[in-house]
Amino acid sequence: MLRTYRVARASGLSGLRGGIPTAPRGTRQLFTKPPQHPAKPKTKSLELRRPDQVRQLSGKPLPRTQSTLLNFGYRTAAWFGSSIAFVGLGFVAFFLYDASTYSSHATNQGDIAISKLALNPRRGGPKNLPILEIFLDDDDDEEKKKHKDKPRLVILGGGWGSVALLKELNPDNYHVTVISPANYFLFTPMLPSATVGTLELKSLVEPIRNIINRVKGHYVRATAEDVDFSSRLVEVSQKDPRGNEVRFYVPYDKLVIAVGSTTNPHGVKGLENCHFLKDINDARQIRNKIIQNLELSCLPTTSDEERKRLLSFVVCGGGPTGVEFAAELFDLLNEDLTLHFPRLLRNEISVHLIQSRDHILNTYDEAVSKYAEDRFSRDQVDVLVNSRVAEVRPESILFTQTGPDGKTTVTKELPMGFCLWSTGVAQAEFCKRISRQLGPAQTNHHALETDTHLRLNGTPLSDVYAIGDCATVQNNVADHIITFVRNLAWKHGQDPEKLELHFSDWRTVAQQVKKRFPQAAAHLKRLDKLFEEYDKDQNGTLDFGELRELLKQIDNKLTSLPATAQRAHQQGQYLAHKFNKLARAAPGLKANEISEGDLDAAVYKAFEYRHLGSLAYIGNSAVFDWGDGWNFSGGLWAVYAWRSIYFTQSVSLRTRVLMAMDWAKRALFGRDLMSF
Amino acid sequence: MLRTYRVARASGLSGLRGGIPTAPRGTRQLFTKPPQHPAKPKTKSLELRRPDQVRQLSGKPLPRTQSTLLNFGYRTAAWFGSSIAFVGLGFVAFFLYDASTYSSHATNQGDIAISKLALNPRRGGPKNLPILEIFLDDDDDEEKKKHKDKPRLVILGGGWGSVALLKELNPDNYHVTVISPANYFLFTPMLPSATVGTLELKSLVEPIRNIINRVKGHYVRATAEDVDFSSRLVEVSQKDPRGNEVRFYVPYDKLVIAVGSTTNPHGVKGLENCHFLKDINDARQIRNKIIQNLELSCLPTTSDEERKRLLSFVVCGGGPTGVEFAAELFDLLNEDLTLHFPRLLRNEISVHLIQSRDHILNTYDEAVSKYAEDRFSRDQVDVLVNSRVAEVRPESILFTQTGPDGKTTVTKELPMGFCLWSTGVAQAEFCKRISRQLGPAQTNHHALETDTHLRLNGTPLSDVYAIGDCATVQNNVADHIITFVRNLAWKHGQDPEKLELHFSDWRTVAQQVKKRFPQAAAHLKRLDKLFEEYDKDQNGTLDFGELRELLKQIDNKLTSLPATAQRAHQQGQYLAHKFNKLARAAPGLKANEISEGDLDAAVYKAFEYRHLGSLAYIGNSAVFDWGDGWNFSGGLWAVYAWRSIYFTQSVSLRTRVLMAMDWAKRALFGRDLMSF
User: Locate the EF-hand domain: which residues (chains A, B) (predicted)?
Assistant: First the structure.
């Protein structure tokens, strides 16, 4: 082997060549037949021949290359060289692929068959509006033609719930239409990152049309206005090219309402002076505002006081969005600002977080929220807990702070140059309208009520579903458990109305509740206290009425599943699986002429939310809360973990590649402090 | 060597391991001391020992791996494996680097020394406005402190000229301030690509603050309003946080005006119905408009006629911007549209290019413009030459087309859903104000006139310079040549006023002109025709007056250098080199008490524009015109060449990496059809 290297060198080849194993070995094959046995003599003859050949080329004595260091150098160079070649080949391959993606000829398609109904839809429905029965692209290809006569699944909204549904839905069973005013899905958990340029806006969005391609679906850019449940028509509105509103109907066989929520104003005055963080344009506006304030602070016409005000950033709301935004803002100001702006600005900047509860991240485990608060206090992010915003003025914010005793309140005014309002969600106008229309079936004023099969209460069974932030599930723990207890009582030969539960019985019932409704566990931690509280007559037992009251109370707490992406995602997946099952069951049901009754319950289980944990980014560290006291927090490694989770959760390969590119960009070039 | 492989395999290592040269060889070093002579016997002993060892590990006979195929397989796997390891190492290294870029601790800077004048600037100047003499960051670090007392170089504008100047300027000589309303440099030639999402907007811009970092400069986000040349103050305006205009002065020792130009309305009515393509917001608006039109076309409430109108895209202006935009638009519609939108749309789309001259790209070589036209006609881009836009209406465009005979004109109306106006440049308001102020020294109504040293005519020498689109260079060919001819005449003992030039003399003079003013060459091609034309008295000779007239005519043609990035770039570089020389010469001049006189001419040559060629992208092909008939056009390979040129021309590593990422993104995921 050492000999071989020498040959390579003496014949003018560099160490690089010597290390590519194929070259000298390939040569050797030319000299010798493949040996039949471990080839000691062959090798020997090679060893003898080679140096002769080389000596003919060069008369000089062979250099001594036995040095370990030199050999190591050769091998490293060889490895390096062949790897570079590999990477180079990758580049060439990519360019070849790239070249294949250009279609240099105009796509001449000739005539296209389009149904007349698609071009001139017939009018109808209660308001005699055009009805979108046939789509322009219903006949575009064989795949689409096949879907024409399938049941119509109409999905309102293009958020987490809809996309989870679309990604799990069997592509062959439904004629799918998505109606949404935005033609993209937004990866909301990363939105705070986009406000400061850690991620690009583009990397957080995926065109809806890309997503529906899988199910050969259709997209209509419009806003849902109303639903006529009896004639199964969704009324949608859109602005025509002249800016006038036009309305039309989209018919459905199955309707999924997943329109999300709006910002909760909490009745505070002056929210027009705030920024929100709900969609991609909000993120851009925030970015521009931050940079504008920085630029204004540099002008000689800006007074000291004015500069301090411009650089006072206030975040209202200590939930994940508010906390992550404050953290990202701090990163921007800490890592990138001082590189390019006068140092004075860094000293004048203040970030304030106003939280109404006594802790930030109050839905998380206490340890997590403590960690976040410590981190913020170290990073000089001013956390104001027990504070309620009273009014947002153009240049300041008024809030009342409750003292540690819980009684004394003081009203403070904080000058500010920027205010983010992220204090939870409220019901969208469309949902309010639906809710009013359904009357007594809908009693919740915050969200649309569904049963555990996610069917909208008050609408024909298996027609209309509601998922995500706009909906809430009535678990009916009480009803289920009461039935269970009643059966138990009858079995023991007792009259349930006269049932008296001792504490041990109550513990059994509670176990049962925890098993069926895992979400209820959190509310059944202190069984003794609950027992005491609801044992109104203090007789040491719960009677039937007291038990019902207790369970109802738990029920009420359970109905409000968290308004998170996670819940919407699980509900979307649940619906997709159910719709797939329903479609598979359809031929059988048809054969048996079954079209009424609780089909959903017949083919699929009820929806059950499984909390997989919460995470939050808090300024070069991250916190994770898996529930039940499982949680951890950490520095940079946790940030990488946090990113990995969202990376895998991301909607498409495209957004994943883009996010990775963005993170690399931030490392290489920092965040861009530009506004446009 | 074959032996070594066998060892590796028999001991359970895969072919992959066998190929990493260091592993088995390193092992060998353990058995033997480094041999003193070419180690034939040593190798032999090794060969003997090794199989024994292996046999001890496994009793089975050794497999026969002498097969060429098998060896090839091993080697390929080895190469592949080590390359993967290499790439993996790269990733690890990048992550380590990434981790090092987070500063997890708040930058606590303590007190910062800032001049009182920076916080409360004194007032003065003709309008008694605050004067920005000391900047907030003048004392931020040692480097910046050193610059405090250097001559103040103020640059108005952040375009090609300014950036070229900033990149070539010696960092130690001037206290540099850039004043521009946009805090980024925009790579204008790629703007058409950004309108359709081939490139991201971010990839075309570089923050001015990044660029001025090299020269430790300052940036003021404001708009230049006026200049007081006698007290050397630039009056700038900015909106304060309340939206009121505030004004202040920025003092200078040297002022460079590079504010660019505005769109030329050519007196056409209804331009509010057009889009422009001057800055990054224009590009975004165009992108959103295109997508909005596509979405509207899909609605059932849109009639056939309306759909055709919405999908009729009109480009006014057949220069590079117009042509490239039309080409990019065609790419978008051809490559990406049909994947996601109904096929019908592709059939209904029309792209029109309205050009007032008889060819598109009329500043390019005829062959190039012919190629572009052929390409467009194949791609069904409707090129309307000899057509002048009369009026742009909200939903249609009116234009008059001159027939092939050059006389008959017809007025046509074209329904359109989108109109881009890109018909050349006009003078910015600021320049008009300067021009009026300088009175008779400025006679050109289209641009600020400078001498060949790029000094603004009418201002104190070596104080004020103007470059880029906003300026024009008076070459004064006539003056120079007349002096030359006069000297020639005196030398020959003739009275120059009575000089008579025969055609051969004229040819000598023309040669002289071509030598001194390379740009004039294009206008001196048909010497005989020129001679004939200007020999008014038809006596076969040019007298002194006739010669002067001829040269003046050429002069006029030369003054208008093309309003291109290339020219601005060269002028910026020229100024940087001159400023560097002036700074180097300054101590000597000071010692000799020279402060008046033509310093510029004393230290540096006059500006000379060298045309390096023009390029344009025309839909999966590109054209190049190097001037003097050198040109070529081609398909995909030309596109790659076109990209390479702009890639190298790009302003920073950051924009280069971003552009490369964008091109890769387009190949992988297509263009994004989203609007926000």
Answer: 522-557
Name the residue among B612, B538, B602, B604 with its Cα closest to residue B577.
B604
Residue A343 pLDDT: 85
Under a CB-based contact definition with an 8 Å cutoff, are residues A241 and B296 in contact?
yes
Answer whether B636 sits within 8 Å of A343, measured CB to CB. no
Residue A28 — pLDDT band, cuts 50, 70, 90? very low
Best to test chain B binding among A209, A643, A668, A674 (most B CBs inside 10 Å): A674
Contact B382/B353 with Cβ under 8 angstroms? yes
A103: nearest CB among B335, B661, B672? B335
Helix (H, G, I), strand (E, B) or coil at A130: strand
Is pLDDT at B518 greater than 80 in this prediction?
Answer: no
Q: Which of B182, B241, B343 is closest, CB to CB, to A296? A: B241
Distance from CA of A17 to the nearest CA of B (A): 13
Nearest to A140 among B44, B51, B342 (CB): B342
Q: Indicate the domain borders of chain B.
A: 1-56, 116-259+425-474+563-676, 274-422, 477-559
For A534, other C-beta atoms within 10 Å of its C-beta total 18
Question: How many Å separate Cα B138 from the centre of its chain?
Answer: 31
CATH of domain A477-559: 1.10.238
The class of domain B274-422 in CATH terms is alpha beta
Q: Look at the domain B116-259+425-474+563-676 and name its fold.
A: FAD/NAD(P)-binding domain (3.50.50)
Contact at 8 Å (CB) between B258 and B162? yes
Cross-chain residue pair B43–A3, CB shorter than 8 Å? yes
* CB atoms B240 and A119 under 8 Å: no
Partner residue opposite A68 with nearest CB, options B34, B75, B205 = B34
Q: Do B112 and A310 touch (CB under 8 A)?
A: no
For residue A224, what are the β-bridge partners? Answer: A236
- Helices A653-669 and A636-649 cross at an angle (nearest 10°) of 150
Q: Is A113 exposed, middle or buried (0-12, 13-18, 19+ CB in 10 A)?
A: exposed
Which residues on A lie below 8 Å from B347 (Cβ)?
Answer: 109, 112
More confident residue, A546 or A227: A227
Show residues of chain A in contact with B299, CB under 8 Å.
220-222, 238, 240, 246, 248
Are the beta carbons of B202 and A672 separated by less than 8 Å? yes
Give dist(CA A39, CA B65) in Å, integer: 12
Give the pLDDT band (50/70/90) at residue A43: very low
Long-range Cβ contact pairs of B577-583 (< 8 A, separation 24 or more): B577/B168, B577/B604, B578/B453, B578/B603, B578/B604, B579/B153, B579/B165, B579/B169, B579/B170, B579/B173, B579/B174, B579/B254, B580/B168, B580/B169, B580/B170, B580/B173, B582/B462, B583/B151, B583/B170, B583/B173, B583/B174
Q: How does the average pLDDT of chain B come out, rounded?
A: 81
pLDDT tens-digit series, residues A103-144: 655 555 667 777 888 888 899 989 999 999 888 888 888 888
Question: What pLDDT, in 10s, does the model give residues B449-506?
Answer: 888 889 998 888 888 999 998 998 876 677 777 777 777 777 777 777 777 778 888 8
DSSP codes, A185-220: EE-GGGHHHHHTTSS-GGGGEEEHHHHHGGGT-EEE
* Integer CA distances (angstroms), A62 to A1, A8, A46, A530, B353, in order: 15, 11, 17, 92, 72
pTM of the predicted model as reported, rounded to 2 decimal places: 0.78
Q: What is the ipTM of this complex?
A: 0.77
- Chain B environment of A207 (Cβ under 8 Å): 340, 672-674
Q: A271-423+612-669 and A477-559: same fold?
A: no
The domain A271-423+612-669 having CATH identifier 3.90.420.10: the answer here is: no
